[in-house]
Design a protein that fits this description.
This is Cytochrome c1. The protein is an alpha+beta fold and 245 residues long. The chain is 49% helix and 13% strand. The chain contains ten helices and six strands.
Amino acid sequence: MMKKLIIGLFALLPTLTMAAGPSVPLMDANIDLKDNASLQRGAKLFMNYCLGCHQMQYQRYERTFRDIGIPTEIGQEQLIFDGSKVGSHIKNAIAKDDAAKWFGAAPPDLTLVARVRGTDWIYTYLKSFYKDESRPFGVNNIVFPSVGMPHVLQELQGLPTPITEEVEEHGHTVTKVVGTETDGTGEMSDDEYDRAARDLTNFLAYVGEPSRLESEALGLKVIGFLVILFILAFMLKKEYWRDVH
C-alpha cells in the first residue's frame, strides 16, 4: 500500500509543478490580521470591485462584520448591495454558465484563495497587471500569464505599461515582461494603491481562516499551561526521588 502511495505521489509531481505556474519573484505582502482598519478597507474593496464575479460562499456577512469591527447596521447599509440578509453567505447572482462564456472559465470562489495561493502571491498579482492589447480584456498579468479577467482595480491604479527585457530561454532570445510602470491615470497614487492591494490581501487572508487569531492565542495558552505542568511534574519527581538518591 505504501509503495503504491509513493509511486502515485511521484506521478503527480509534474502536474503539481505545472500548477505552480512560472517562477516569478513575489513581493512581501506584509499584512497584519490585527489591523481592523486595513481589514475594513479590504472588505470595502472586495464588495465594490470583486464580488460582482467572485463569491465567498463559505463566509457570512454577519461573521465578517463582527470579526473586523464593522457595526451590523453600517455593514448592511454600505456593504450589502443585493438586499441579502446579514446572516447570508457572501454570494453573487452571476450564473456559472454565463461567466464561463464571458471569461473562458467561471470565476473561482475566493474564500480560501489566500490559503491556496499565499498572501505574497495575491499581493504581487494585484500589482502585476499591465496593458496587453492582444488579450480579450486588454490586460495581462506577470504572475498569471494569459489571465482571463479584466483589471478590476484599473480605475484606482490606472493601466500600467509593461517593462520588458531580452532574456535567453532554451537557447532562444525572448522578450519577457519583468515589471510594470503606472501611466498616472488612476485615482490613487502608487503608495495609495500599494496600501489598497495590501488591504485587499489582508482581508482575503482573514476570510481564509477567520479564527486564526483566536487559534494562535489559544495555542499560546496551551503552551504556557504545558510549561507550567512540566515544571510542576519535574519538581514532584524530584520530591518523590529525593530520599532514594
